[in-house]
Design goal:
By secondary structure, this protein is of the alpha+beta class. The chain is built from 19 helices and 20 strands. The strands form four sheets. It has a nine-stranded mixed sheet with strand order 12-16-13-17-11-10-19-9-20. A hairpin with a 2-residue loop joins strand 2 and strand 3. The longest helix has 40 residues.
Length: 761
């Protein structure tokens, strides 16, 4: 306890310079804690949003045997459609004789003709009047915040009569123990956590280490003096740890306060595709524990470790002592990580991508961590080797001075550059995640399909849907009946369409003749296991009777090709003219497919028109999984936040370390100036000291970063393994980092010479 009090007394009474250093350590630590709190708060925000989604899910009443109870209870039917890349949720509700509590966010269940909408949907309806076709009724109010996952969510509760909602489900209450569609799938969330850890936590560890070791040389000599005065070895370590822990504690409290301000501001402004309520981002007990206890505890161990040398051998830290060469053990994690990444790159290049996702989910993250740690540990040895070789061969005074200084003190310049090197490394990994997400969302199809089960619409609604403006074509696909005696017998679909409709639906058609059945054939698809002349049965309903429609697979073929990235018609199907469908009948098991252009405005107008013609019908836009699109938008936003935080941390680490290094180097720079070195030469020396080893580290970071990115893509199961287009961006970032480092090194040499700085030497 005495050593801790001594450390605090030395902190408060050791001069203005030490107090300024303490403030810098605390402010720098607060920035790191704020970034750490942001990362830790993201899972809590997503969990709060998923909790509100679960709270509004309907619970179906059932009897003791598990059968659904239909009488008396209100009816509910939920439909989710895309509005751009955002999901639009419509909940149709019909009141019943049994009263129940309304869903969260509503004061009562909507009556027939009433519509309650979310605030963002209210604004959209004002700006886009055509959108109101999806909501039959008049707007009666807004949904409260407790009924919305996010402030920008698109949700509407539409009141209808029980006759209009005959296919709805009875509801006894709202709220389930599980979330049907979480905002981010657990597997995707694990990828986000891993990437955020690499993008933010690796540079953050370097930054906190830099903040904890400010004025390391001066503090070490002060601790050595205390040791020579009789303080014990452990006592010396505790004295140093006391100052570090005090700075970390103040920085943690200040960082949490900064996070609260950031949460209040950003939650109200919102991020692209991701918004939340301020209460969702409130600090959890885990975050408080990690920041207020974990950070000071980490600082305690760092403080004790940094004082170990002065406590063990005080004379070894004198100004004239030769610094011990950096250990080469730092190459071990780098070599191990690169070995794993090389194996995955070779597997992808040879076409043997691994299929074991469980093993890859362990090896690839482990390799990334090993490479990141190895980069930080091996840079001093690489810098020393490069400095020794360059100093021997150069004839330049500036290069010679810079390289001899890096040879004598290899960790000095790299302490400044490590954060920037790691930032470039993890930027490449984050780019790989974005490439994989783009593969999922990217579609080059010129058409958009909307599949509707024919049994959900009547003949009038079907005619209205087929005559909508903006459609290119429409077809009806009949699914064959399954023969109970031969359930494994293959069958083919029947496509009810004219030749003109087929030409509008697909990209090319050859040999189509109206008025007779034809066999559709696409050589680019896997062919059905059926032969010409085989018989296929279909079910059609006329009134209350079900009839059998028997078709024979024709011998005459029609060759066609589907549009790019779209499956409009299956190869092997029978093209059936509409005139051959028996009059006054409708297919039982059939799908109505509407085809339009793939432009966003066209898709939006078609969905609006479908909602106006058949509000409660289930529409499946082919290739347009809106929940996945929203999830990918959230993931991209979170990765962008991580990259911004990583950039802030990397630049902050550079500024703090560069400033600290400038203060430590003032005696040496002053000595060289007194010996006649010009200021221009000294500035060149400072720039070369930082830029040359940083350039080597950045080249290594780009190489291993691309290896990590390719390994991730190989294990992701996508079609893209190598991203050559990302190399120029990474090289441009690396060049920008070099320019920033060079400009930051220029002011380290001033014009004023203060001999007092070297008086003690």
């Amino acid at each position: 306890m005495k050593e801790l009090l001594l450390g605090l007394r030395l902190l408060l009474g050791s001069g203005r310079g030490n107090r300024a250093r303490f403030v810098l350590m605390a402010v720098g630590g607060s920035l790191g804690v704020c970034c750490l709190a942001i990362v830790l708060a993201i899972p809590g925000i997503l969990a709060a949003q998923d909790g509100r989604i679960a709270a509004r899910q309907p619970v179906v009443p059932r009897d003791q045997s598990g059968q659904r109870i239909n009488s008396g209870f209100p009816l509910s039917l939920s439909r989710t459609d895309p509005y751009g890349s955002a999901p639009l949720t419509r909940v149709f509700v019909a009141r019943g004789a049994t009263p129940i509590e309304p869903p969260p966010g509503l004061m009562s269940l909507p009556r027939d003709g009433q519509v309650f909408v979310s605030p963002r949907l209210h604004r959209l309806l004002r700006d886009q009047p055509a959108l109101a076709q999806r909501f039959p009724g008049d707007e009666a109010g807004l949904i409260g915040a407790q009924g919305l996952a996010r402030p920008d969510e698109l949700v509407a509760y539409v009141g209808m009569s029980r006759a209009e909602l005959s296919d709805g489900y009875p509801v006894k209450k709202w709220g389930k123990d599980y979330t049907p569609d979480p905002t981010v799938e657990p597997s995707t969330l694990n990828i986000v956590r891993f990437t955020m850890a690499g993008v933010v936590l690796l540079p953050l560890a370097v930054f906190l280490s830099v903040c904890a070791r400010l004025s390391a040389a001066e503090r070490t000599r002060r601790l050595a003096a205390l040791r020579l005065l009789g303080l014990s070895r452990k006592g010396t370590q505790r004295v140093n740890a006391a100052e570090t822990v005090a700075a970390a504690g103040v920085g943690a409290a200040l960082g949490l306060a900064e996070y609260e301000v950031v949460n209040q501001l950003v939650s109200r402004i919102g991020l692209p595709g991701f918004k939340w309520y301020p209460g969702d981002g409130a600090l959890s007990a885990t975050t408080l524990l990690v920041c207020l206890v974990g950070c000071p505890a980490l600082a305690w161990f760092v403080g004790r470790a940094s004082a170990r040398k002065a406590a063990a051998n005080p004379l070894a830290v004198r100004r004239s002592a030769v610094e011990k060469p950096p250990s080469r053990w730092g190459f071990l994690p780098l070599t191990a990580g690169m070995g794993i990444l090389t194996g995955y790159c070779i597997a992808g290049a040879t076409g043997h991508a691994p299929t074991s996702t469980a093993l890859s989910s362990v090896l690839v993250p482990a390799a990334v961590v090993l490479v990141g740690v190895g980069l930080a540990l091996s840079l001093p040895s690489l810098s020393r080797f490069l400095a020794r070789r360059t100093a021997r061969s150069t004839q330049s005074l500036s290069f010679g001075l810079a390289m001899r200084r890096n040879e004598a003190e290899p960790g000095g310049a790299l302490r400044v550059a490590t954060g920037l090197v790691l930032l470039v490394f993890v930027a490449s990994l984050a780019q790989g995640v974005l490439i994989e997400l783009d593969q999922v969302t990217k579609s080059n199809s010129p058409v958009q399909l909307y599949d509707i089960m024919l049994e959900e619409v009547n003949a009038t609604q079907q005619h209205t849907l087929e005559e909508m403006t903006g459609l290119r074509a429409h077809i009806v696909s009949l699914q064959p009946k399954v023969d109970s005696s031969e359930p494994t017998k293959p069958g083919v679909d029947a496509v009810v369409a004219t030749c003109d409709q087929l030409r509008k639906a697909v990209s090319s058609v050859e040999g189509c003749v109206d008025g007779q059945p034809l066999w559709l054939w696409d050589s680019a698809q896997v062919q059905a296991d059926i032969q010409a002349g085989d018989t296929v049965h279909f079910a059609v309903r006329g009134g209350r009777r079900t009839r059998d429609l028997k078709l024979t697979v024709p011998y005459q073929k029609v060759r066609f090709h589907n549009p790019v990235d779209a499956q409009v018609v299956d190869s092997g199907a029978i093209l059936l003219p509409p005139s051959m469908v028996p009059r006054h009948t409708r297919p039982e098991d059939a799908t109505l497919s509407l085809i339009s252009g793939s432009g966003p405005e066209t898709v939006r107008s078609v969905l609006d028109a479908i909602g106006g013609a058949a509000p409660t019908v289930q529409v499946e836009p082919q290739g347009l999984a809106v929940e996945a699109l929203q999830q990918i938008t959230v993931v991209k936003t979170l990765l962008a936040v991580g990259m911004i935080l990583g950039l802030i941390i990397g630049v902050a680490a550079y500024l703090v370390a560069a400033t600290d290094r400038a203060v430590e180097r003032r005696p040496q720079v002053t000595a060289l100036a007194l010996l006649g070195a010009r200021a221009r030469t000294l500035r060149a020396v400072q720039v070369v000291q930082v830029v040359l080893p940083l350039a080597v580290g950045l080249v290594l970071a780009v190489v291993v970063g691309k290896m990590a990115e390719s390994s991730y893509l190989v294990t992701g199961g996508g079609a893209v393994f190598w991203d050559g287009g990302g190399v120029p961006l990474l090289l441009a970032c690396a060049l920008g980092v070099l320019v920033v480092a060079a400009v930051g090194a220029l002011p380290l040499v001033g014009r004023r010479i203060d001999p007092e700085l070297i008086r003690r030497d």
